[in-house]
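2024-03-11 09:14:02 DEBUG pipeline.ingest accepted 1 chain
2024-03-11 09:14:02 DEBUG pipeline.ingest length=377
2024-03-11 09:14:03 DEBUG pipeline.predict start
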Amino acid sequence: MKVGIIGAGIIGLSIGWYLSKEGIDVTIFEKNEAGKGATWASAGMLAARSEIEPGEEYLLQLLIDSKNLWPSFAEELIQESKIDIGYRKEGTILIALDYDDASKLKSHYNYLKKIGIDVEILSSEKILEIEPFLNPNLIMGLYSKEDHQVDNRLVALALKEAFIKSGGILKERAEVKKVVITNDEIEGIIAKDEFYKFDFVVLSAGAWSPLIEGIPKHVIPPVRPVKGQALSIQMDPSNPIIKHVIWGPEAYLVPKNDGRLVVGATVEEVGFDNNITVSAVYSLLKACWEMVPSISEFPIKEIWSGFRPGSRDDAPILGPTRIKGLIMATGHHRNGILLAPITAKGITEFIVKGVLPSYIKRFTLDRFNTSWNEYKS
């Protein structure tokens, strides 16, 4: 059996690694460099609980199940790649800086408790005891101990290494020009003017997934680019001023083991415009300064933008299509890092066993051809 994967972000690399471990002949094609797209641009949060919003309850179990896979996923990845991926378990703190923020945060707390999410209300005194460099005028906060994080960039490097070590073939700077389909069945792909025959093709090209030629109109995934701008500030790695993931009213802060403090991120519907804008940088820095006033003297290390792959309903598109052998693994929006383990597990199980796991059945492309309410129930 031969499997071709289009796209070497965290989703494509994770699926490739899992398949390769099963003894499957796997080739991943990436138009640029593996892991350097949305995966590289993300913050690496595993926020299955604190980030959930009203209307997303249908997605909650998938998020939690994938988060529960992350410890073993991380352990095996570190063992195989010999790369420490910066898995951190301090938890996530959501803070309110004024009474309007506090009112919204209390409503969010009530919502989380209603759907069974375990979060703790923290007083301002308790938060400042844990994170003394936060704004001393903050009002209150919520603590989600099960929302962890990884260094997404190290994860990308580790997955690349693990995939190759497991026998997988990675073709970088090899843009897939066309998917070849005959009689509603996959034949293979064309990349760099060469035809490659495959039994299965997995489409995991992120925001670029609907742009691959040869895919019939009725199976083109409804995925769009959702731009995010972010930046990082350099702290002293031996004495960081922030240790937890912090969610404020206008931005989040994610400390990394090398001293970087990732500040993000905008959410913009502007197509593939990757320009860094003054307004975005200003708003992120202002939000960061309001949360951590002493940050003003720290150096900015990097500013970047990326494109989340957002589906029509902002849930992932997973599993088989009406083209035999063509499989979707795209549209993860802001949850690509979090959902990597369960996506890899589910797609691998389908390819190896021929049975679609129940936990991804409701997220197939077919949901857009019928009532979405049938899939949420």
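2024-03-11 09:14:41 DEBUG pipeline.report The longest helix spans residues 57-81.
2024-03-11 09:14:41 DEBUG pipeline.predict end
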